[in-house]
Specification:
Shape of chain A: elongated
Oligomer: homodimer
Strand order of the largest sheet of chain A: 2-1-3-4-5-11
Number of helices of chain A: 11
Radius of gyration of chain A: 27 Å
Number of strands of chain A: 12
Largest interface: A-B, 68 and 68 residues
Distance between the termini of chain A: 89 Å
DNA sequence: TTGAAAGCGCTAACAT
DNA sequence: ATGTTAGCGCTTTCAA
């Protein structure tokens, strides 16, 4: 078509002026048609001509240029603030992405490796690219330090929070999760439940443990009668703690674990010792970890950590407009998922 | 500082003209200093003044504007072409991100959910935002259809390929992985090795199986003497196939599995049957799946799928400049990782 | 109902 | 050694 050199930046793409020329209208008119600019009336005839030209040339507006003009990039920065970039981040991103797409936004992703200085630097890069908003996410729920510069755009925290809750955050309702998991076990008839916890210093562990105790008390049981062993969320700590339980004598009828990986380790130890799950003892996980909980044998009863939903909520809220994003915590429900690793106790409770 | 309204797009940020004014130079000079423009000589005195002004105002160039001018956004589109957005994608993204950062690029991420029409649409969104290049990644190695529009920018495929190999792709060297895993077992003294494969129709399964047979033949063994049972990469298929093995009579001395999840399922079945690993039988996985292989008990010997390295390579190559990106496959080595689920066989080989 | 023109913030060729 | 100027591709006010 054009015989002149095409070595300018946007090479190969039709520009708005090309469309205007082909349609025989002014460039402004093209914008009016494409943007359905309010307060602009365009004759049907003109609109048709423009649309045909757009189609013919395969014209797509250059969003970088639009962005420069409008001061919005239709892009949200997603900061994964963790050393590892694993299943959690993946799920949260998936949710955020899905919601973003629905609103015409895309995610610009960075991973800080858990370092605050990296975070500051990367948020800088994000803002340089004019991201309209920021999602700041951590894998293990925890307190974070958000780079100052993030204040320049609407920011939502996912699975983390800042001291004073100056920024809005979306968190899993761990206490309720712990409570409902315990309740599910109680409902099955269990009266002797051990808890192999995750890292005790973590926010999630404390909340889940609180839920555990609340449920026990609510059922008229004394939490102090129930074994609580501190672990660290790794599979091998589940393995070790289950062996400890085994060594100590009569097993409880049910074992709650800090997360699925620990439950998994516990399962291994139990099997090794010839203890059947769930016939001899019920095992409950936490997380509903992708490609793990549902697949192992027996399929693990667990509590779902709603990471995707949390990412979705954050992106949704940011897309709905900045001013509506108010500080404070939003707790998201963690539903209990009953599978095959739990059953009614076969023997009466100990004691 | 400024008392005039700040309701224009770039609100709050200092612009280049602000810096120029404060430094008492022209806007162009600011660019020259900041970009170290070749062929421009700036006096030390001027440079200092500019840099001070930059510092004082906290000036950072608007990359959207830079991009519009230069026709490059310092952004790479990462297309995760899969229904699930799991550990694989996470690892590849992590690698790509790391390399990108090093070159001043950021990743604009999309997830197609495995749908080609979604892929086409999302690649459109990516290109609208002027991404300089594209990385197209799949979780399970496979053939993909890349949207036509992707041809407009340099594109590299990660863990997938197009028919005819018209686009460069980075793939794991699965045949070698299968061969070396088998060889590791042979080196331990195993002569009777069963293979519980992943989905047989998949590219990876076929290649690994080929490697398995090559290694066996290389050791003077007849592959037909070794049990090969087809599975599907899920943990429960490992469980079921291991039970099949158990039922069939004398166990092999070593079991290779399609992936870590299957190895995991097999482990469960073995334990349940009172078979000890690695004392009675060695188990080998594949993938070196994050938070799984290294943590379970016994820690799983496996073959590492170098997803992060693959993502890194792709991003690296794209950053080094488009023209250097030539079609063809690049195979990346999958190293064997020996842990505790493998050992020398205790009993002599069957037969 | 449409067009002209002024910028968004920046780079780079061309002056001086 | 530094400044002027013409855009990059688009939106949007204002005028016709």
């Amino acid at each position: 078509m054009s015989t002149h050199e095409d070595h300018r930046p946007n090479a190969g793409r039709a520009r708005r002026t090309d469309v205007a020329r082909l349609a025989g209208v002014s460039p402004a008119t093209v914008s009016f048609v494409l943007n359905k600019t309010a307060g602009q009336t365009i004759s049907d005839e003109t609109r048709r001509r423009v649309l045909r030209a757009v189609d013919e040339l395969g014209y797509r507006p250059n969003r970088a240029a639009q962005g420069l003009r409008q001061g919005r990039s239709a892009t949200i920065g997603f900061v994964s603030h963790d050393s590892d970039f694993g299943v959690f981040a993946a799920a949260a991103i998936k949710g955020a992405h899905e919601a973003s797409i629905r609103h015409g936004n895309l995610l610009l992703l960075v991973n800080t490796g858990g370092s605050n200085s990296q975070a500051a630097q990367l948020v800088g890069e994000l803002l340089d690219r004019q991201t309209d908003a920021l999602i700041f996410a951590a894998a293990g729920t925890r307190s974070v330090v958000v780079p100052e510069s993030a204040e320049k755009v609407p920011t939502i925290l996912v699975n983390c929070y800042v001291t004073g809750d100056a920024l809005p955050s979306v968190l899993p309702d761990e206490a309720r999760g712990g409570r409902e998991a315990t309740q599910a076990l109680l409902d099955l008839g269990h009266r002797d439940i051990a808890y192999l916890t995750g890292t005790v210093s973590s926010w999630a562990t404390k909340a889940r443990l609180r839920g555990f105790r609340e449920a026990l008390s609510g059922a008229g049981l004394d939490p102090r009668d129930h074994t609580v062993l501190p672990g660290n969320y790794h599979a091998d700590s589940g393995y070790e703690l289950a062996r400890t339980l085994l060594r100590r004598g009569p097993l409880p009828t049910a074992i709650m674990c800090g997360n699925d990986r620990m439950a998994f380790g516990a399962l291994l130890a139990l099997l090794e010792a010839g203890v059947r799950v769930p016939e001899d003892v019920s095992v409950m996980g936490y997380d509903d970890q992708f490609q793990l909980a549902a697949e192992i044998h027996p399929a693990l009863s667990t509590v779902r950590l709603p990471y995707a939903a949390m990412g979705r909520m954050a992106a949704e809220r940011l897309a709905d407009g900045g001013p509506a994003v108010r500080p404070g915590r939003t707790l998201v429900h963690c539903p209990v998922v009953m599978r095959d690793s739990t059953a009614a106790p076969a023997r009466p409770a100990r004691g």
